[in-house]
Amino acid sequence: MTQASAETHIDVSDLTMAYGSFVLQRDLNFVVRRGDIFVIMGGSGCGKSTLLKHMLGLISPARGDITYSGQSFVHASDAQREATRRRWGITYQTGGLFSAMTLAENVALPLQLYTNYGSGEIRDIVAYKLALVGLAGYQDYYPSEISGGMSKRAALARAIALDPEILFFDEPSAGLDPISSRLLDDLIMEIQDSTGATVVMVSHELASIFNIANNSVYLDAASRTMIDYGDPAYLRDHSKQAVVRQFLNRGSRTDESTAQAQRSGNE
Amino acid sequence: MTEQHAGFQLVHSNDTDALLTLSGPWVQGCDLEDFSSLSSQLHLGTSTHLTVDGAALQEWDSTLVAFLLQCFNHCSEAGITFATRDLPAGAAKLLALATAVPPHRLEPESPQHWLASLNPMVLLDKSADFFRQSLGFVGEVSVALVKLAVGKSNTRFEDFRQFCYEGGPRALGIITLTSVLVGMILAYLGAVQLQQFGAEVYVANLVTIGILREMGVLMTAVVMAGRTGAAYAAQLGTMQTNQEIDAITTMGISPVEFLVIPRLLALVVVMPMLTLYADLLGIVGGGIVAGGMGITPLQYISQAESALAINHLLVGLIKSVVFALLIAVAGCRAGMNSGRSSAAVGQAATEAVVTAIVYLIVADAGINIICQQIRF
Description:
Mean pLDDT of chain B: 89
Low-confidence stretches of chain B: none
Largest sheet of chain A: 6 strands, mixed
Radius of gyration of chain A: 19 Å
Mean pLDDT of chain A: 85
Strand order of the largest sheet of chain A: 6-7-8-3-9-10
Number of helices of chain A: 10
Strand content of chain B: 5-15%
Oligomer: heterodimer
Largest sheet of chain B: 4 strands, mixed
Helix content of chain B: 55-70%
Shape of chain B: elongated
């Protein structure tokens, strides 16, 4: 990826995340380029999901800034934030589908809110988006009536309803069987490939990380900061940090004992 | 019997070394001496090195490893080096695994006396927080209502209709039951007193005014707080758990406009109607009791009619609107601020009902005082 992808899309600078006086991560600096599939990695409890929530503006940072296409998001007015958010599509860890609405209504909602399509056109677009994720014909099902994998895909259909510039995923393949998880990865890649969207995801599924990501950041729970940044396939063998190599090699003891990794995870 | 007991023996071989010999079967149910006796023996000596010898051990289970772990932790705290020899291979491995990660230490919290939780300043602080949060919520709701009034809101009419149906027609059964009974109770209460003066027929006045101004609307509000207020809190709390509220926020929609306003408006529309219905049935309930005391229906009706004044009805209806707002705000606030676990959702529902009922009674008293002052 060399051509247009060099352009900076998201820039996180000097970000410190804290709950009250408890600092979760400090001094995070990284850049997501346009068209990247960017993964936020790290052990359990290191603050991956919290970082995503900061990027989405659900939590305000203790310090630092996040810019989208050069515009600060942290210091933006509510109206500016809303305008920025309209160019995003997000799927949450639990899907985040509105349980009181059918799948069609879920996907249609952003279209009704932000476009001028008539109801017939919306119906067609909903059918198309659901077909894209392999859920054609499930328009009138409620989220409680479909399986976990299906609701993740339905959430993806809602996320891509407005043809977003950035797609955010919080643990897309958590709780899915290997085949569904692989299908979801392929789906994300195909959608990224055909729309050129930037993808930011939180994940610790190694298979899926190597499969689709071309850039990543590793958050360390022990030192409470990011300790490496780059293409995960490269980091697996060449990271200067033993913990990162160990993480990407599924904990095989390269030169560090498991006990030590466990210890850092407990702190 | 030659049955052997599990046991240990501590020998201080010289100034710095101690040897702990374990013997017998260390299994569940074995009659083992307490660990504290060993730790006190250890402290008696000046040893800086402890060796555990397991050569004489017979069968063993978790009892043994738990004991060894306790020894290990005790030694590491006291600065004594710990070593083992001739332990069964499995036990040694398990001990190594258990001691691989040092125990997590709680950060020392400043110890709090239980009386500290009764500190009036702390309590005041807590209620001030609650008050601030509630005011903030009311502010958000007001802003959303203004946006709705100028037609810039993301409130869906479809949701409003659904909540009207949930809150209104489906509540009729329970409202019927409670209001008829409350009418009867009022009638009994009054009749016994009025009989002493031979003025039973005035039961109709008492029931009519009592129901219209007070009991009809209050009972309806209590039922709605338990039924609809709690439901709102649980619905919104579950959405919070389910990340639905996050999804709404990041979709660029205000959750207050989208979730709270339709619920609030539905309750405000439905409550006065339910109150009118409850008033009517309460008066009927009073009539049933009056009939049992020898007052003819015609007498009851004409007496009730004479007591029926428009201001009584209005007081009840104004109260119903105020109560509806309070129930909706209490329920939705609790739900929107709910934590993200099943226990938190339960707490939110409880909090919704408790705060709603407190609000109701305070507001009711306030409205009564005002009406008294302006003679309405």
